[in-house]
Design brief:
There is one protein chain. With 466 residues, the chain is α/β, with parallel strands linked by helices. Helix content is 26%, strand content 27%. It is built from 10 helices and 25 strands. The strands form 6 sheets. Strands 6-7-5-3-4-8-9-18 form an 8-stranded mixed β-sheet. Helix 1 crosses helix 2 and helix 4 packs across helix 5. It is globular, with a radius of gyration of 22 Å.
Length: 466
């Protein structure tokens, strides 16, 4: 997958402690892991923006070992649920994880490789990688990505962003998140140097590291850019910065325009993109030279991809400015989902065609604009959160209550019954925050007498709060 040996002693990554690592260092780890895991099998990889996490990921892909990438912040109950469903033969985890029930078979770069004693389920030959559909809730529903998916999307992104070995991206997003992972993939592929930072953009140390190491680019979700706007980012002295990218949800038109104008005035590039885990990473991008003119747009299909809009009967919409469901076709469309270990043997169920669940329109110049969603999920601070999954978490934790979730991006509304005090309400807010690893400010909990439902027992979401 990654031909890292050809980059030799070129620096692949620099971490927060100013330690440099070379592509040769990565290759050494890859060969050592190959000696221990000599067959194709499943491994759970608990991710962080560190060299240990990066080395494990590259080693697994290059050795055709299939990793499920999970956040190292994942709730332990959710982790155990995934273990029960998928039976990984190995776990790659940072040293601060307590996995004393399993045998340590390898230790390097503050990570340990554990052998679980479980028997891996059979794996489809072209299955390369597994990502959760919702990185924050650790949903047992996984997206199955193939080697072809990853390579085609990586090459496409490199092409439209013009990524070369001279780039120095700084990490602002988790490795287990499809957008953060695509940044890593594209820069590994060309032999660039990645600035691996665990720090947040609110920390002075992040910006000191950024300046000291000469970061050339960063990526962010809408929440990232909202924070940057409040941080007086436009006054910062960042002479090495060349490119800013945005995905993970729709940026407000006002902020889109503001950052596009800033990029234009400072001779930088601001590229808005659109993607889903189900399409490996990216499906669309808005060329930076059109960013001011077309602010609010998600752009055009990536090289090698194609969009269509379809109506309720799945008929292709030919007219401009008419809203329909966005359908994408390309080699980066993933194989399908897995909901248990027995699904890992499944082949390609999508055949290169993805119904995105997003409603969009196309203007006369061929640029697309997202206008709404069909599916029940929100983007919370860049994380796609399934509303049904959050309801499941609450109901499993509080058997005496009924609940329903709705809301808008970055603000989830949670309606609950059988709560009699403010303390209990705050407890539920804390519970959801801990389970999803998202800030409490994202959740608004309201007590109601009853959750409205139809005769079939399905929640009437349109009647919530009325």
């Amino acid at each position: 997958m990654f031909n890292i040996e050809k980059f030799g002693d070129r620096v692949v990554a620099i971490n927060d402690d100013n330690k440099s690592f070379t592509y040769s260092d990565l290759k050494k780890i890859e060969l050592e892991i190959k000696e221990i895991i000599s067959k194709r099998t499943l491994v759970f990889s608990l991710c962080s923006n560190t060299i240990g996490s990066l080395a494990g990921y590259v080693s697994f892909l290059n050795n055709r070992i299939v990793p499920l990438l999970l956040t190292q912040e994942l709730d332990r109950e959710l982790f155990d649920e995934l273990l029960e469903k998928y039976h990984p033969e190995y776990i790659w985890a940072p040293n601060n994880w307590d996995l004393k029930d399993y045998e340590i078979v390898y230790n390097n770069y503050d990570y340990k490789l554990y052998k679980t004693g479980m028997q891996s389920y059979p794996l489809y030959e072209e299955l390369a990688l597994l990502l959760t559909t919702s990185g924050s809730t650790g949903s047992p529903k996984l997206v199955r990505q193939s080697y072809k998916n990853i390579q085609s999307n990586t090459e496409s992104i490199i092409q439209y962003l013009g990524i070369t070995e001279k780039e120095r991206p700084i990490t602002t997003l988790p490795m287990n998140y499809t957008y953060g992972l695509s940044i890593i993939n594209t820069h590994l592929y060309v032999g660039a140097t990645i600035l691996l930072s665990e720090r947040k953009i609110l920390e002075k140390a992040f910006w000191d590291f950024f300046k000291e190491k000469g970061a050339t680019s960063f990526g962010g979700v809408p929440y990232t850019y909202e924070i940057l706007n409040k941080l007086r980012f436009f006054r910062m002295e960042l002479p090495t910065l060349k490119t800013m990218t945005q995905a993970g949800g729709k940026l407000s038109p006002e902020l889109h325009k503001k950052f596009a104008e800033f990029a234009h005035d400072t001779k930088r590039e601001f590229v808005v993109m659109y993607g889903q885990t189900e399409a490996t990473a990216r499906m669309a991008y808005l060329p930076s030279e059109r960013s001011i003119e077309k602010y609010g747009s998600m752009g055009i299909a990536i090289p090698g991809g194609k969009f269509e809009l379809v109506d309720i009967d799945k008929k292709v919409i030919e007219e401009t400015e008419k809203v329909g469901e966005l359908v994408y076709k390309g080699d980066n469309v993933t194989l399908g989902y897995a909901e248990s270990g027995t699904d890992l043997i499944k082949g390609d169920e999508r055949n290169g065609c993805l119904f995105t669940g997003d409603m969009a329109r196309q203007d006369k110049d061929g640029f697309y604009y997202i206008v709404g969603r069909k599916k029940r999920f929100l983007k919370i601070f860049g994380n796609r959160v399934n509303l049904d999954e959050v309801e499941r978490l609450i109901k499993s934790g509080y058997s005496n209550i009924d609940c329903a979730c709705s809301g808008v991006d970055d603000q989830m509304k949670i309606y609950v019954t059988n709560i009699n005090s403010t303390e209990e309400l705050l407890e539920i807010k804390e519970f959801v925050s801990n389970k999803t690893n998202l800030n409490k400010s994202a959740f608004d909990v309201e007590i109601v007498d009853i959750i409205p439902k139809n005769e079939a027992g399905k929640t009437l979401y349109s009647k919530l709060g009325k």
